[in-house]
Structures are given as C-alpha cells and as structure tokens.
Amino acid sequence: MADTGQYGELFQKIGLSKNGARIYETLLREGELSVGKIATKSGVHRRNVYDAIQRLLELGLVFEILESHENRYQAVEPSKLVGLVQEKEALLREVLPELEMLYAQSPAKESVCIYRGVEGWKNYMRDIVRLGEDFYCIGGKGGWMDERVMTYFPQFMREIERKEISFYHLFDYEVKASEHEIVNYVGKNYKFLPEGYSSSSSIDIFGDRVNITSQIGLGSIASDISFTVIINQEIANACRLWFQFMWDHCPDE
Fold first, then answer.
1. CA atoms of 115 and 222, how far apart (whole Å)
2. Secondary structure letter of residue 121 according to DSSP
3. Diameter of the chain by CA atoms?
4. Which end of the chain is more exposed for a tag (fewer CB within 10 A), N or C?
C-alpha cells in the first residue's frame, strides 16, 4: 500500500482522514481520475475510495465530472484548504466564550498530571496564555524556541502581549554566554544564574501551576520530553516566594 504522501500528515492535521489525505494529494498530482485510477494511484482500497471521495465532496475539496461511462473526480485549488481551516476556527470562536465560561465555573482542583512530547509542550505554552497571569522561570534555557515549536511561537507571543503577561526569568548561565536570542522576546525582567548552577531541568510558575521539566537543552527540548504539572495554589505561591529569594540574590546585569 502507498504511503500517506509528501503532504498526507499535514492534510490529516487540518481535518482530513488518512484515506482522504491520500486521495486529495493524488488528485492534486494526477488531475482528474476515475475511482479505479484513484484506488490504484493512491493505494486506497477501492471500497474505501467511495466513502473518502464523498467526504471530500462535502468539504468542497473535490468536484465530480459526470461522464456517461464512468464519473471522474478532480481536486479543487489548494487555497480551499485555508478556507476550510478558517471556517473551523470561526465556528470555534463563536462558541469559545461559552466554553470558557463553563471552564471558569468548574471547581478548582488540586492535581498532578504529566504532559508528554512536543504537543504537550505546546499545551503548556497554551496554559500560560489561558491563565493570563505573570510567569516565573528558574533555569530557563529558551526551550520555547525549539524548531518544532516555532510554528506556534509567534502566536504565543502575540497572545502574551495582548493579555499583558509579564515574564520573569532566571536563565541558565549558558543563555548569557551564547547570547541566545530568547532574551530578545521576554522583556527586561531577566537575570542569569551563576556559572556552575545549570542543569537540564527548569521550574516554571504561573497562576496555580508549577511545571517541573527536564530533558531541555539550550533552545531545544527532547522529542520524547515528559514533565510534571502540579496544580496547587499554595505550592505555586511558595515557589514564587523561593523564586523571589533567588532573584534577589542573583547579580543584576
């Protein structure tokens, strides 16, 4: 069976099924095809092509060419994909205030959970935006600028600015030594831990959250990273107090 194609993973991320992604890319490459030719060239079994084509027709990504012998199908221009994403975003934004209200009304809970992988890292960044409270970091290394996160980073920074969230960083010494560009994005409230006190871990505090992370390098995170998220207001308050002690004892730059 054929693989998902060069763009199959991308198409799936914006809502197409695996078979739909294969078929849409095949039609983009080949032009109009019959069902039989679609099955052959995409590697999707003929009995599954019909369902996938019907869904693509409903999404407006494919149109049907009626023929007396056998109908054929052709992909619409790829710019339709942008419209598809925008329509989904518009639907979500319409109900988002109600969803936020539901979330705000839920009782506060104390819990511990684990975030995993690059998507877990993005979720942690979204938590910062969603809670909208000042952010404190001990042992920062610029992990937000990992190349796998950079597609989200500009949006993250726009939301930070819109919500007027302040950052306070105690960076590892290596951030200073390398003149890492992360310092250009976090405002003026940062200092550097003394040389010899660096590690592969960091602690972030915001709102009622304490995130304890590891497997972080200078400007990068491990692909299989996992980190602990503690949701407890008392612990978060204590960590902010300890941060302040460390801040007061780190030299000004």
1. 13
2. H
3. 82
4. N
State CA 128 to chain mean position distance: 13
The closest of 89, 19, 33 to 63, measured between CA atoms, is 33
- Taking phi first (over 0 means left), then psi (-120 to 50 degrees means alpha), and beta for anything else, what does residue 164 get? left
- Angstrom distance (rounded) from CA 219 to CA 112: 26
In terms of residues, how long is the chain?
Answer: 253
Sign of CA dihedral 82, 85, 91, 96: negative
How many CA atoms within 13 Å lie on the side-chain side of 116?
Answer: 2
Q: What is the pLDDT of residues 14-62, one digit of tens each?
A: 889 999 999 999 999 999 999 999 999 999 999 999 999 999 999 899 9
Q: State pTM to two decimals.
A: 0.63
The 3-class secondary structure across 204-251, one letter per residue, is EEECCEEEEECCEECCEECCCCEEEEEECHHHHHHHHHHHHHHHHHCC
Rounded Cα–Cα distance for residues 230 and 113 (Å): 7
Domains delineated in the chain? 8-81 (1.10.10.10), 107-249 (3.30.870.10)
User: What would the pLDDT profile of 163-187 be if each residue is shown by its tens digit?
Assistant: 999 999 999 999 999 999 999 999 9
What does the alpha-carbon distance between residue 251 and residue 7 come to, in Å, rounded to a whole number?
50
The number of angstroms, rounded, from the C-alpha of 175 to the middle of its chain's C-alpha atoms is 24
Residue 140 in contact with residue 162, Cβ under 8 Å? Answer: no
Q: Which two tokens stand for residue 68?
A: 């007396």
